[in-house]
Amino acid sequence: MGLSRLDNLYRQVILDHSEHPHHHGTLDGATSDIELRNPTCGDVLQLQLELEDDKIKDIAFSGEGCTISQASASMMTDAVLGKTVAQADNMVEVFSELIVGDKEVNTDILEDAAVLEGVKQFPARIKCAMLAWKALHKALASDDHTAEIGELHSHDSKEGD
């Protein structure tokens, strides 16, 4: 397949996830709830998880944002559903390295989200792609799996934001 056809396929996957997001909505039985904002562009993401036996039993997101942030959230929810907390947190690290890092990573665990690698060519869009993954990381890192409303200040996961 030619490079331009492959790029077009990746764009179609992103557009499909943005226009028809998976796991969009709210959870009645949420055990984790976090809202993050991207102050640069105004994207807002509410992420809810239902954790059971150290696994993500259910997941949902809502909010408003650009095509990249909505597609990334949809892809992330698909990829982490059913995973353990440790597996999901590892996926956050792999996604972060894919988007902002310089090391080669195995993207198989990211499923459709691997197509967002091209975002690294557009630094202004990195925070958009990272928003849902950052929310997931914050929710999983919290002792009670909740977090207060916050802003995404940096796309560099090593800063602890």
Poorly predicted parts: 145-149, 151-161
Percentage of residues in strands:
15-25%
Distance between the termini: 39 Å
Query: Can you tell me the CATH architecture?
Result: Alpha-Beta Complex
Pfam families: NifU_N
Protein name: Fe-S cluster assembly sulfur transfer protein SufU
Domain NIF system FeS cluster assembly NifU N-terminal: 10-128
Structure description:
This protein has helices spanning 3-19, 67-80, 85-100, 123-141, and strands at residues 32-37, 44-52, 55-64, 150-151. The chain is an alpha+beta fold. The longest helix is centred in the last third of the chain and has 19 residues, at 123-141. It has a four-stranded mixed sheet, with helices on one face.
Feature tags:
161 residues, alpha+beta, Sufe protein. Chain: A, 4-stranded mixed β-sheet, 4 strands, disordered C terminus
Describe the secondary structure blueprint for this structure:
Elements lengths: L2 H17 L12 E6 L6 E9 L2 E10 L2 H14 L4 H16 L22 H19 L8 E2 L10
Parallel strand pairs: 1-4
Antiparallel strand pairs: 1-2, 2-3
Helix pairs in contact: 1-2, 2-4, 3-4
